[in-house]
Design goal:
Elements lengths: L1 H21 L14 E7 L10 H14 L5 E5 L5 E7 L7 E4 L2 E4 H21 L11 E4 L7 H15 L14 H4 L10 H8 L6 H5 L5 H7 L1
Antiparallel strand pairs: 1-3, 1-6, 2-3, 4-5
Length: about 220
């Protein structure tokens, strides 16, 4: 009798465990359109940290290469102790869909979910945590081009994050940011720098000085 109960219960317990893992990240599916810029960001649940040691940042970026980079061009990023922002450009890859369990899902939206779920599982195991590491529903805000140059504002705002948070005295000192690549201190390839320069009209001769220009609170509120 006991053996029969175990036969019935073990598969159910395994299913419950799998559900607990996959429910770490629940998000409303995001919709993307071709040839648009998007400010993608999320933060730790209840403002908690999401990166606890240098290896965590590197581990997260490796997952970005696996789950995000195949479906869009990344223009800028900066990993902060309790949140992350990315500026991406969409193309044909971004708007593609795939069928998962008889449901049609956008490939980038699903990639973001897998990125956060797999990272959260690893960090929870590392720190012996349980529960949600990230806030639910990652934001993907389209950047409306216009007279206020919100595309450039988002680009520079992302790079200014560690500087504005007083984590470093100079932006190039924060190694978990694409600013290090754009200012020539590192030759990273996660960001499509050529496309960024073309789309945003970056002047690389004045790039360093432009990067430190003050961004007003009204402009910040409009990009978040």
């Amino acid at each position: 009798m006991l053996s029969c109960l175990l036969v019935l219960l073990v598969p159910r317990l395994r299913a419950v465990a799998q559900e607990a893992e996959t429910e770490i990240i629940k998000q409303i599916p995001m919709e993307f359109f071709k040839n648009e810029l998007y400010h993608i960001y999320n933060r730790g649940n209840n403002q908690q940290k999401i990166f606890f040691k240098p290896d965590n940042y590197i581990f997260f970026l490796k997952k970005v290469r696996r789950y995000i980079l195949p479906y869009c061009d990344i223009l800028s990023y900066s990993l902060m102790p309790n949140h992350f922002p990315f500026l991406i450009h969409s193309d044909e890859r971004t708007i593609a869909t795939k069928t998962i369990r008889n449901q049609t899902k956008n490939v980038l939206s699903e990639g973001i979910r897998l990125l956060l779920s797999s990272y959260a599982q690893a960090i929870n195991k590392q720190n012996q945590f349980s529960g949600s590491l990230f806030q639910q529903n990652t934001k993907a805000k389209p950047i409306v081009k216009g007279g206020r140059n919100y595309d450039l504002t988002v680009f520079h705002y992302i790079h200014q994050n560690p500087y504005r948070a007083n984590l470093v005295a100079r932006m190039e000192d924060w190694e978990y940011s694409s600013f290090v690549d754009y200012c020539g201190k590192r030759n990273g390839d996660l960001c499509n720098k050529e496309l960024t320069i073309k789309l945003l009209g970056l002047n690389m001769k004045t790039f360093y000085e432009d990067s430190y220009n003050q961004i007003g609170y009204d402009d910040i509120n409009n990009i978040l």
